[in-house]
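Data deposition worksheet. Section B asks for the primary sequence of the deposited chain exactly as it was used as input, without tags or linkers unless they were present during the calculation. Section C holds the resulting structure in token form. Section D is free text for depositor observations; keep each observation to a single sentence. Incomplete worksheets are returned to the depositor.
Section A, Depositor: J.P.
Section B:
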Amino acid sequence: MFCAVSLPTNCPSKVIWPRPRARHFGRPVKLKVSALALESGGVNIEYTPWLVVGLGNPGNKYHGTRHNVGFELVDRISQVEGIAMNTIQSKALIGIGAIRQIPILLVKPQTYMNFSGESVGSLAAYYQVPLRHILLVYDEMSLPNGVLRIQPKGGHGHHNGVKNVMEHLEGRRSFPRFCIGVGNPPGTMDMKAFLLQKFSPTERQQIDGALEQGVDALRTLVLEGFGPRVNRFNLGQKYKYHQAEKKKKK
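Section C:
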């Protein structure tokens, strides 16, 4: 069983993970951090791991499209935290590491968006990650381009990737979400065509700025949970939302 424990700042920690097997999986594996507390001698402490899943479509054809911003944020976290995405497991590209003392599994399903749940359900069960620590990162058309939102739970909002994940989690919805706004299709443009389109230069700049903010926000969520700092982040994004709406009406 995992529990959250605060360590002294001078307490080094070492992340211990099992080596995933690419084809066949046996019994579930618990992910843990072993730590040595300098003041009190040797002690083993276990932390609850996070499963951070970016939703998107695999392949160069979809790289940089609106529907793939979930992949992009996972890639940014991978780069900043030095977590190599170099393992295939459960039809997903995964990276295993930690943010400070917290174990983290970065995931990019390779099943295409509408079947993302196949990877999420399998990995969550295999690594015994609790529902409250399965974080989905995905595009959200109800938010203006570049506006972010973190929620502890919710519905699928007609997002087929989220809907499929919920189906593979036995219909449960109490898992956190990190939504990245991509705006609505202009005029009568087809929704699917819009999502599979790349950003304009201005939109790309907004998304790049949002992803930089998103890395810090995701790190805060993993380390502190839904506390005051995440609440302040959401308030700041709400202000950004209203500013974008005012600008659109002008």
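Section D:
Strands lie at 13-16, 32-35, 50-54, 85-89, 92-99, 102-109, 134-140, 148-151, 177-181.
The CA atoms of residues 54 and 71 lie 5 Å apart.
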